[in-house]
Request: fold
Amino acid sequence: KTLKLKCTCIFSTDSSRAMHVMPAWVIDKYGNNDVLRFTRNASFPLITYPNEVVIKVHAAGLNPLDVGMRGGYGAASMSMKRDPLNLKQSGSEFPLILGREVSGVIMECGLDVKYFRERDEVWAAIPPWKQGSLAEFVVLSGNEISHKPKSLSHTEAAAIPYVAATAWSALVNTGGLSKDNCGNKRVLILGGSGGVGTFSIQMLKAWGAHVTVTCSQNAERFVRELGADHVVDYTAGPVQEPLRVMEKFDLILDNVGGDTERWALSLLKPWCGAKFVTLVTPFLQNTDQMGLADGMMKTFVTVASKALKHLTSGVHYRWGFFAPSGPALDEVRSMVDAGQIRPVVEKTFSFSQVPQAFAKVEEGHARGKTVVQII
Ligand code: NDP
Reply:
C-alpha cells in the first residue's frame, strides 16, 4: 500500500533497499541539551504489529521525563522493555526520539485496528520505551491512542495525554478514586502548579472532591483559577504546619518527593482506607544504578517495607506510575469536551526550537505544560 506521506525515499548504503526517512529531533548519546540533533533522515516508523497505527504528529508535549531521558534516566529499564532478550548491543536505542505526548492525524492503520481510521484526529501518551513525538511521524498501538477532543487544537491537546494518563493511573488505578466516589473526599495535591498537578486539580474538582494544593506563592491565583479550594504556599515556611491544622485527608498525591513522606502520611485519616500516592519513586534510578535484577529487588523491598510500616498506622502508602491508556484518554476527552478540563499550555515552541523547549522544561517552576508545534 502506498502512503501519501511527506517522506523522502533514499537508498540505504548497506542493503540497497529503499528506505523512508523523516525529519526528527534525535539523540545519539545521553547528555545535556547539546546532544539534541535535528535530522531530516530519521528512520520512518513502520507498522510492525497489526494493531498499530502511523500518526502524523501535529504537536508534541514535553515533560520532565524527557529531560531525564535525554540524560539517560531510566535507560536500563527502557532497554529491557525494548529488547527483553538482551540480543542487541548496548546503545542500540540510538538514534532515540524523545517526546511523550502527541496530537496528530492517523495516516495508516494496521490490519487489526478496528476503532480508528485513516485521517482520524487522535491524541496519545507515548510509553517511554517507544520512539517519541519530536518527529514528523510516530507509531503507536491502537490501545494507546484515543480520539482527540474536538474542542481543542492539536497544540492544546498535546498538553494533556501524558499528565492525564499519569494522574489517572495514580488517582484512579492506585488511589481508587472515581467520578462516583469523590463527592465526600478531601484530597491534598503536593505540587499543584506543574503538568500533573494542574490536570489533577481539574479532574478531581470535576468529580466533586475537595482539593487542597501546595505550590509557590506566585502560583496561588493560578491554581485557584483551576479550581483548588485551599492553597498552601510552601515557600512561606515548613508547609506541614498549616496542613496539620486542617481536617485530615482521604488521599494525598505527591508530585514533589524529597522529605514529603516523612510528614505527609500523618495528614491522612487513619483506619478508613486513606492513601498516600507518590509519583516520585526511586524505581528507575535503582535499576540505572544497580542493574535490573538488583534494582528491582531493592525497589520491591523498599516499597513493601514502607507500605507495611504505614499500614500499622492505618494508612496506605503507594507508588504511582505513568501507564499508557487509550480508554482512560477517552474518558478524559469527554471531560474536556464537556468543559470540565482545559489544557494549561504555558509556552509553545516551533519544531526548530526543540532545544529551547527542553531548556524551558529543565529550568523547572512549570505553570502547566510546554508544547512543541511540529507543523
Ligand atoms: P512539573 O515540572 O510540570 O511540575 C512540578 C511543579 O512543582 C512546578 O510547578 C514547581 O513549581 C512545583 N514545586 C516544586 N517544588 C515544590 C514543592 N516543594 N512544593 C510544591 N510545589 C513544588 O512536573 P510534573 O507535574 O510533570 O511531574 C511532577 C513529578 O511527578 C515530577 O517529579 C515527575 O518526575 C513525576 N512524575 C512521575 C511519573 C511516574 O510515572 N512515576 C510520571 C509523571 C511525572 P515551583 O518550583 O515554582 O514551585
User: Anything to note?
Assistant: Residues 1-18 have pLDDT under 50 and may be disordered. The first strand starts at residue 8 and ends at 11. The radius of gyration is 21 Å.
